[in-house]
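Per your request, structure below.
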Protein backbone atom coordinates (compact mmCIF):
# COMPACT_ATOMS: atom_id res chain seq x y z
CA UNK A 1 0.00 0.00 0.00
CA UNK A 2 1.12 3.56 -0.67
CA UNK A 3 1.31 6.05 2.19
CA UNK A 4 -1.78 7.79 0.83
CA UNK A 5 -3.75 4.55 0.82
CA UNK A 6 -2.60 3.72 4.34
CA UNK A 7 -3.80 7.09 5.63
CA UNK A 8 -7.16 6.51 3.90
CA UNK A 9 -7.62 3.11 5.51
CA UNK A 10 -6.48 4.35 8.89
CA UNK A 11 -9.24 6.97 8.83
CA UNK A 12 -11.79 4.32 7.91
CA UNK A 13 -10.45 2.16 10.73
CA UNK A 14 -10.85 5.03 13.22
CA UNK A 15 -14.49 5.42 12.19
CA UNK A 16 -15.13 1.68 12.32
CA UNK A 17 -13.66 1.33 15.80
CA UNK A 18 -15.77 4.20 17.05
CA UNK A 19 -18.92 2.67 15.56
CA UNK A 20 -18.21 -0.63 17.31
CA UNK A 21 -17.59 1.13 20.62
CA UNK A 22 -20.92 2.92 20.32
CA UNK A 23 -22.73 -0.40 19.93
CA UNK A 24 -21.04 -2.46 22.63
CA UNK A 25 -17.92 -2.57 24.79
CA UNK A 26 -15.74 -5.52 23.85
CA UNK A 27 -12.82 -6.97 25.86
CA UNK A 28 -10.60 -6.42 22.80
CA UNK A 29 -7.37 -4.58 22.09
CA UNK A 30 -6.34 -3.94 18.49
CA UNK A 31 -2.63 -3.37 17.87
CA UNK A 32 -1.47 -2.08 14.47
CA UNK A 33 1.86 -2.61 12.70
CA UNK A 34 2.97 0.92 13.67
CA UNK A 35 2.34 0.40 17.39
CA UNK A 36 -0.96 2.28 17.47
CA UNK A 37 -3.58 0.51 19.55
CA UNK A 38 -7.30 0.72 20.17
CA UNK A 39 -9.19 -0.61 23.18
CA UNK A 40 -12.82 -1.49 22.51
CA UNK A 41 -13.81 -1.53 26.18
CA UNK A 42 -12.82 0.06 29.44
CA UNK A 43 -11.73 -3.10 31.25
CA UNK A 44 -8.69 -5.31 30.84
CA UNK A 45 -8.78 -6.81 27.34
CA UNK A 46 -9.26 -10.57 27.14
CA UNK A 47 -8.26 -10.69 23.48
CA UNK A 48 -5.46 -8.89 21.65
CA UNK A 49 -5.65 -8.74 17.87
CA UNK A 50 -2.40 -7.78 16.15
CA UNK A 51 -2.25 -6.54 12.57
CA UNK A 52 1.35 -6.88 11.33
CA UNK A 53 0.71 -5.20 7.95
CA UNK A 54 -1.65 -2.58 6.57
CA UNK A 55 -2.98 -4.99 3.93
CA UNK A 56 -5.01 -6.80 6.59
CA UNK A 57 -7.11 -3.73 7.42
CA UNK A 58 -9.75 -4.65 4.85
CA UNK A 59 -10.41 -7.92 6.68
CA UNK A 60 -11.19 -5.93 9.82
CA UNK A 61 -13.49 -3.43 8.13
CA UNK A 62 -15.61 -6.30 6.77
CA UNK A 63 -15.18 -8.65 9.76
CA UNK A 64 -17.37 -11.56 8.79
CA UNK A 65 -16.38 -14.77 10.51
CA UNK A 66 -15.16 -15.96 7.10
CA UNK A 67 -12.87 -12.93 6.66
CA UNK A 68 -11.55 -12.98 10.22
CA UNK A 69 -11.07 -16.73 10.14
CA UNK A 70 -9.21 -16.61 6.84
CA UNK A 71 -6.97 -13.77 8.02
CA UNK A 72 -6.05 -15.77 11.12
CA UNK A 73 -5.52 -19.07 9.30
CA UNK A 74 -3.38 -17.45 6.60
CA UNK A 75 -1.28 -15.56 9.16
CA UNK A 76 -2.44 -12.09 8.15
CA UNK A 77 -3.45 -11.35 11.73
CA UNK A 78 -2.29 -12.71 15.08
CA UNK A 79 -4.65 -13.24 18.00
CA UNK A 80 -3.82 -13.69 21.67
CA UNK A 81 -6.25 -14.87 24.35
CA UNK A 82 -8.30 -17.91 25.30
CA UNK A 83 -9.92 -19.39 22.24
CA UNK A 84 -13.45 -19.20 23.68
CA UNK A 85 -12.99 -15.47 24.28
CA UNK A 86 -11.57 -15.08 20.77
CA UNK A 87 -14.67 -16.71 19.24
CA UNK A 88 -17.03 -14.55 21.31
CA UNK A 89 -15.21 -11.34 20.33
CA UNK A 90 -15.05 -12.35 16.65
CA UNK A 91 -18.80 -13.02 16.64
CA UNK A 92 -19.49 -9.67 18.26
CA UNK A 93 -17.37 -7.86 15.66
CA UNK A 94 -19.10 -9.72 12.84
CA UNK A 95 -22.64 -9.33 14.13
CA UNK A 96 -22.29 -5.66 15.08
CA UNK A 97 -20.77 -4.72 11.72
CA UNK A 98 -23.07 -6.82 9.55
CA UNK A 99 -26.16 -5.66 11.44
CA UNK A 100 -25.13 -2.07 10.84
CA UNK A 101 -24.69 -2.82 7.14
CA UNK A 102 -27.95 -4.77 6.93
CA UNK A 103 -26.23 -8.00 5.82
CA UNK A 104 -27.76 -10.74 7.94
CA UNK A 105 -28.97 -13.27 5.38
CA UNK A 106 -27.69 -16.86 5.36
CA UNK A 107 -26.24 -18.10 2.11
CA UNK A 108 -27.79 -21.23 0.59
CA UNK A 109 -25.35 -23.19 -1.57
CA UNK A 110 -25.85 -25.98 -4.05
CA UNK A 111 -22.91 -28.36 -4.47
CA UNK A 112 -22.41 -31.06 -7.07
CA UNK A 113 -21.51 -34.35 -5.38
CA UNK A 114 -19.68 -37.11 -7.23
CA UNK A 115 -17.92 -40.15 -5.84
CA UNK A 116 -14.54 -38.60 -6.66
CA UNK A 117 -15.32 -35.22 -5.14
CA UNK A 118 -16.88 -36.72 -2.02
CA UNK A 119 -13.85 -38.99 -1.51
CA UNK A 120 -11.49 -36.03 -1.87
CA UNK A 121 -13.53 -33.96 0.62
CA UNK A 122 -13.58 -36.78 3.18
CA UNK A 123 -9.87 -37.42 2.82
CA UNK A 124 -9.08 -33.70 3.15
CA UNK A 125 -10.85 -33.53 6.50
CA UNK A 126 -10.21 -36.91 8.08
CA UNK A 127 -6.77 -37.81 6.75
CA UNK A 128 -4.83 -35.07 8.54
CA UNK A 129 -3.36 -37.88 10.65
CA UNK A 130 -4.71 -40.34 13.21
CA UNK A 131 -2.23 -38.99 15.76
CA UNK A 132 -3.72 -35.52 15.29
CA UNK A 133 -7.24 -36.68 16.16
CA UNK A 134 -6.02 -38.75 19.11
CA UNK A 135 -4.87 -35.53 20.78
CA UNK A 136 -8.37 -34.11 21.27
CA UNK A 137 -10.80 -37.02 20.91
CA UNK A 138 -11.55 -39.62 23.60
CA UNK A 139 -9.74 -42.93 23.90
CA UNK A 140 -12.33 -44.63 21.68
CA UNK A 141 -11.67 -42.17 18.82
CA UNK A 142 -15.31 -41.13 18.41
CA UNK A 143 -15.65 -38.01 16.25
CA UNK A 144 -19.36 -37.22 16.66
CA UNK A 145 -21.75 -35.85 19.27
CA UNK A 146 -21.50 -37.56 22.67
CA UNK A 147 -24.50 -38.33 24.89
CA UNK A 148 -24.36 -36.93 28.40
CA UNK A 149 -27.13 -38.99 29.95
CA UNK A 150 -26.77 -37.39 33.39
CA UNK A 151 -24.79 -34.32 32.41
CA UNK A 152 -21.73 -35.09 34.50
CA UNK A 153 -20.00 -37.79 32.43
CA UNK A 154 -16.46 -37.48 31.14
CA UNK A 155 -16.06 -37.54 27.37
CA UNK A 156 -15.08 -41.21 27.01
CA UNK A 157 -18.06 -42.33 29.09
CA UNK A 158 -20.43 -40.03 27.20
CA UNK A 159 -19.22 -41.37 23.85
CA UNK A 160 -19.85 -45.00 24.86
CA UNK A 161 -23.26 -43.95 26.16
CA UNK A 162 -23.93 -42.32 22.78
CA UNK A 163 -23.11 -45.55 20.96
CA UNK A 164 -25.27 -47.58 23.34
CA UNK A 165 -28.05 -45.00 23.01
CA UNK A 166 -28.00 -45.53 19.24
CA UNK A 167 -27.84 -49.31 19.40
CA UNK A 168 -30.66 -49.46 21.95
CA UNK A 169 -32.80 -47.17 19.81
CA UNK A 170 -32.49 -49.47 16.82
CA UNK A 171 -33.06 -52.53 19.06
CA UNK A 172 -29.89 -54.32 17.97
CA UNK A 173 -29.95 -58.01 18.90
CA UNK A 174 -27.36 -60.84 18.84
CA UNK A 175 -26.80 -62.33 15.41
CA UNK A 176 -28.28 -59.40 13.50
CA UNK A 177 -26.38 -57.73 10.68
CA UNK A 178 -25.42 -54.06 11.03
CA UNK A 179 -24.16 -51.63 8.40
CA UNK A 180 -22.43 -48.49 9.71
CA UNK A 181 -22.20 -45.84 6.97
CA UNK A 182 -19.23 -43.61 7.73
CA UNK A 183 -17.76 -45.87 10.39
CA UNK A 184 -14.90 -43.60 11.42
CA UNK A 185 -12.23 -45.41 13.38
CA UNK A 186 -14.61 -48.28 14.15
CA UNK A 187 -15.90 -47.52 17.64
CA UNK A 188 -19.56 -48.24 16.89
CA UNK A 189 -19.06 -51.53 15.07
CA UNK A 190 -16.62 -52.69 17.76
CA UNK A 191 -19.23 -51.98 20.45
CA UNK A 192 -22.02 -53.56 18.38
CA UNK A 193 -20.05 -56.78 17.98
CA UNK A 194 -18.61 -56.94 21.51
CA UNK A 195 -21.64 -56.01 23.59
CA UNK A 196 -24.57 -56.80 21.31
CA UNK A 197 -23.26 -59.79 19.36
CA UNK A 198 -23.94 -58.26 15.95
CA UNK A 199 -22.21 -59.05 12.66
CA UNK A 200 -21.05 -55.74 11.24
CA UNK A 201 -19.87 -53.98 8.11
CA UNK A 202 -18.36 -50.50 8.42
CA UNK A 203 -17.66 -48.31 5.38
CA UNK A 204 -15.55 -45.16 5.15
CA UNK A 205 -13.87 -43.07 2.45
CA UNK A 206 -10.99 -42.07 4.73
CA UNK A 207 -7.84 -44.13 4.16
CA UNK A 208 -6.53 -43.33 7.63
CA UNK A 209 -9.77 -44.35 9.30
CA UNK A 210 -9.93 -47.53 7.23
CA UNK A 211 -6.40 -48.57 8.20
CA UNK A 212 -6.76 -47.88 11.93
CA UNK A 213 -10.28 -49.36 12.16
CA UNK A 214 -9.01 -52.60 10.63
CA UNK A 215 -6.12 -52.66 13.13
CA UNK A 216 -8.51 -52.14 16.03
CA UNK A 217 -10.84 -54.88 14.82
CA UNK A 218 -7.96 -57.32 14.49
CA UNK A 219 -6.55 -56.37 17.90
CA UNK A 220 -9.97 -57.00 19.46
CA UNK A 221 -10.12 -60.46 17.87
CA UNK A 222 -13.29 -59.58 15.97
CA UNK A 223 -12.20 -60.00 12.35
CA UNK A 224 -14.75 -62.81 11.98
CA UNK A 225 -17.61 -60.50 13.03
CA UNK A 226 -16.57 -57.10 11.62
CA UNK A 227 -15.61 -56.12 8.08
CA UNK A 228 -14.20 -52.63 7.42
CA UNK A 229 -14.40 -51.40 3.84
CA UNK A 230 -12.96 -48.42 1.98
CA UNK A 231 -16.20 -47.90 0.07
CA UNK A 232 -18.77 -45.31 -0.96
CA UNK A 233 -22.20 -45.90 0.57
CA UNK A 234 -23.69 -45.79 -2.93
CA UNK A 235 -21.73 -48.90 -3.86
CA UNK A 236 -22.80 -51.07 -0.91
CA UNK A 237 -25.01 -54.04 -1.77
CA UNK A 238 -26.81 -56.65 0.29
CA UNK A 239 -29.37 -56.63 3.07
CA UNK A 240 -28.88 -55.53 6.69
CA UNK A 241 -31.11 -55.86 9.74
CA UNK A 242 -29.87 -52.56 11.14
CA UNK A 243 -28.21 -49.52 9.56
CA UNK A 244 -26.54 -46.58 11.29
CA UNK A 245 -25.15 -43.39 9.79
CA UNK A 246 -23.41 -41.21 12.38
CA UNK A 247 -21.95 -37.83 11.42
CA UNK A 248 -21.84 -38.72 7.74
CA UNK A 249 -24.90 -37.37 5.92
CA UNK A 250 -23.53 -33.80 6.16
CA UNK A 251 -21.34 -34.83 3.20
CA UNK A 252 -24.19 -36.20 1.07
CA UNK A 253 -25.59 -32.94 -0.32
CA UNK A 254 -29.13 -31.66 0.12
CA UNK A 255 -30.19 -32.53 -3.44
CA UNK A 256 -28.94 -36.08 -2.89
CA UNK A 257 -30.81 -36.73 0.35
CA UNK A 258 -33.80 -38.51 -1.27
CA UNK A 259 -31.46 -40.93 -3.09
CA UNK A 260 -29.32 -41.30 0.04
CA UNK A 261 -32.34 -42.38 2.08
CA UNK A 262 -33.55 -44.51 -0.82
CA UNK A 263 -30.23 -46.35 -0.71
CA UNK A 264 -30.66 -46.96 3.01
CA UNK A 265 -34.15 -48.32 2.34
CA UNK A 266 -32.79 -50.56 -0.41
CA UNK A 267 -30.17 -52.01 1.97
CA UNK A 268 -32.55 -52.34 4.94
CA UNK A 269 -34.10 -55.75 5.50
CA UNK A 270 -37.87 -56.04 5.89
CA UNK A 271 -38.65 -55.33 9.52
CA UNK A 272 -35.29 -53.59 9.95
CA UNK A 273 -34.50 -50.28 11.65
CA UNK A 274 -32.05 -47.51 10.75
CA UNK A 275 -30.79 -44.37 12.40
CA UNK A 276 -29.48 -41.16 10.88
CA UNK A 277 -27.45 -39.09 13.35
CA UNK A 278 -26.27 -35.81 11.87
CA UNK A 279 -25.79 -32.06 12.09
CA UNK A 280 -28.58 -29.87 10.77
CA UNK A 281 -29.02 -26.21 9.97
CA UNK A 282 -31.49 -24.26 12.09
CA UNK A 283 -32.33 -22.10 9.09
CA UNK A 284 -35.59 -23.33 7.55
CA UNK A 285 -34.24 -22.61 4.06
CA UNK A 286 -31.20 -24.85 4.66
CA UNK A 287 -28.95 -21.81 4.87
CA UNK A 288 -25.42 -21.83 6.26
CA UNK A 289 -24.41 -20.63 9.70
CA UNK A 290 -24.64 -16.83 10.00
CA UNK A 291 -22.01 -14.10 9.72
CA UNK A 292 -19.83 -16.14 7.35
CA UNK A 293 -19.20 -19.08 9.68
CA UNK A 294 -20.52 -21.55 7.11
CA UNK A 295 -18.38 -20.00 4.39
CA UNK A 296 -15.25 -20.47 6.52
CA UNK A 297 -16.11 -24.11 7.29
CA UNK A 298 -16.74 -24.87 3.61
CA UNK A 299 -13.40 -23.40 2.57
CA UNK A 300 -11.17 -24.75 5.30
CA UNK A 301 -12.87 -27.58 7.19
CA UNK A 302 -15.60 -29.49 5.32
CA UNK A 303 -15.37 -28.87 1.57
CA UNK A 304 -18.72 -29.49 -0.13
CA UNK A 305 -20.52 -30.05 3.17
CA UNK A 306 -24.20 -29.09 3.34
CA UNK A 307 -26.52 -28.95 6.33
CA UNK A 308 -30.27 -29.43 5.85
CA UNK A 309 -32.97 -28.24 8.23
CA UNK A 310 -34.63 -31.06 10.18
CA UNK A 311 -37.81 -30.48 8.18
CA UNK A 312 -35.83 -31.22 5.01
CA UNK A 313 -34.40 -34.36 6.61
CA UNK A 314 -37.87 -35.70 7.43
CA UNK A 315 -39.29 -34.74 4.04
CA UNK A 316 -36.47 -36.34 2.04
CA UNK A 317 -36.49 -39.39 4.31
CA UNK A 318 -40.14 -39.94 3.37
CA UNK A 319 -39.32 -39.33 -0.29
CA UNK A 320 -36.69 -42.07 0.02
CA UNK A 321 -39.30 -44.54 1.26
CA UNK A 322 -38.57 -44.36 4.99
CA UNK A 323 -40.84 -43.48 7.91
CA UNK A 324 -39.39 -41.45 10.80
CA UNK A 325 -40.19 -43.33 13.99
CA UNK A 326 -38.29 -41.43 16.68
CA UNK A 327 -36.67 -37.96 16.57
CA UNK A 328 -34.38 -36.55 19.28
CA UNK A 329 -32.56 -33.21 19.40
CA UNK A 330 -29.07 -33.45 20.96
CA UNK A 331 -27.91 -29.88 20.27
CA UNK A 332 -26.89 -29.18 23.87
CA UNK A 333 -24.94 -32.45 23.92
CA UNK A 334 -22.92 -31.40 20.88
CA UNK A 335 -22.22 -27.98 22.38
CA UNK A 336 -20.62 -29.73 25.35
CA UNK A 337 -18.83 -32.27 23.17
CA UNK A 338 -17.23 -29.60 21.00
CA UNK A 339 -16.38 -27.57 24.10
CA UNK A 340 -14.47 -30.52 25.54
CA UNK A 341 -12.72 -31.14 22.22
CA UNK A 342 -11.70 -27.46 22.11
CA UNK A 343 -10.36 -27.64 25.68
CA UNK A 344 -8.41 -30.81 24.84
CA UNK A 345 -7.03 -29.14 21.74
CA UNK A 346 -5.80 -26.13 23.73
CA UNK A 347 -4.29 -28.35 26.42
CA UNK A 348 -2.33 -30.30 23.79
CA UNK A 349 -1.12 -27.34 21.73
CA UNK A 350 2.55 -28.33 21.78
CA UNK A 351 1.87 -31.96 20.84
CA UNK A 352 -0.50 -30.89 18.04
CA UNK A 353 2.18 -28.64 16.57
CA UNK A 354 4.45 -31.69 16.42
CA UNK A 355 2.03 -33.68 14.24
CA UNK A 356 0.64 -30.99 11.93
CA UNK A 357 1.52 -27.61 10.47
CA UNK A 358 0.58 -24.17 11.77
CA UNK A 359 -2.22 -23.68 9.24
CA UNK A 360 -4.02 -26.89 10.20
CA UNK A 361 -3.54 -26.04 13.86
CA UNK A 362 -5.23 -22.67 13.38
CA UNK A 363 -8.07 -24.11 11.28
CA UNK A 364 -9.03 -26.73 13.84
CA UNK A 365 -8.50 -24.40 16.79
CA UNK A 366 -11.14 -21.93 15.63
CA UNK A 367 -13.34 -24.64 14.11
CA UNK A 368 -13.75 -26.64 17.33
CA UNK A 369 -14.33 -23.63 19.56
CA UNK A 370 -16.54 -22.01 16.92
CA UNK A 371 -18.64 -25.17 16.62
CA UNK A 372 -19.22 -25.23 20.37
CA UNK A 373 -20.34 -21.59 20.10
CA UNK A 374 -22.64 -22.35 17.15
CA UNK A 375 -24.36 -25.29 18.86
CA UNK A 376 -24.74 -23.32 22.07
CA UNK A 377 -26.49 -20.47 20.25
CA UNK A 378 -28.75 -22.60 18.03
CA UNK A 379 -27.00 -21.77 14.75
CA UNK A 380 -26.70 -25.50 14.12
CA UNK A 381 -28.24 -28.55 15.72
CA UNK A 382 -27.94 -32.33 15.93
CA UNK A 383 -30.77 -34.79 15.41
CA UNK A 384 -31.01 -38.53 15.77
CA UNK A 385 -33.80 -39.91 13.60
CA UNK A 386 -34.79 -43.58 13.85
CA UNK A 387 -36.62 -44.84 10.81
CA UNK A 388 -38.12 -47.95 9.25
CA UNK A 389 -39.36 -48.80 5.79
CA UNK A 390 -42.49 -46.80 5.06
CA UNK A 391 -45.67 -48.83 5.14
CA UNK A 392 -44.55 -51.14 7.90
CA UNK A 393 -47.34 -52.41 10.16
CA UNK A 394 -47.76 -50.12 13.15
CA UNK A 395 -48.26 -53.14 15.40
CA UNK A 396 -44.61 -54.14 14.89
CA UNK A 397 -43.27 -50.98 16.54
CA UNK A 398 -42.76 -50.31 20.28
CA UNK A 399 -45.60 -48.52 22.07
CA UNK A 400 -43.32 -46.09 23.90
CA UNK A 401 -39.72 -44.94 24.20
CA UNK A 402 -39.17 -46.95 27.40
CA UNK A 403 -37.33 -49.67 25.51
CA UNK A 404 -34.48 -47.23 24.88
CA UNK A 405 -33.79 -46.75 28.58
CA UNK A 406 -34.32 -50.22 30.07
CA UNK A 407 -30.59 -50.88 30.26
Amino acid sequence: MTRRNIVFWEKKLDAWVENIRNVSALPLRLVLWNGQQYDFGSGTPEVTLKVPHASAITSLLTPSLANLGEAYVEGKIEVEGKVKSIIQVANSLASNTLKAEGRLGRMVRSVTHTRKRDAEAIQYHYDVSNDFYKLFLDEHMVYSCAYFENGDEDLATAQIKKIDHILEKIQLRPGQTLLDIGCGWGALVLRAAQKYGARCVGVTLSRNQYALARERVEAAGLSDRIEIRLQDYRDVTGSFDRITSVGMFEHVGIKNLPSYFAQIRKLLADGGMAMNHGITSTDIENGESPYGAGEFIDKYVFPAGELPHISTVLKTMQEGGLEAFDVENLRRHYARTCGIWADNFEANTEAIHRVTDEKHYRIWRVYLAGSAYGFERDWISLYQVVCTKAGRSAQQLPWSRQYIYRR
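The radius of gyration is 23 Å.

Regards,
D.
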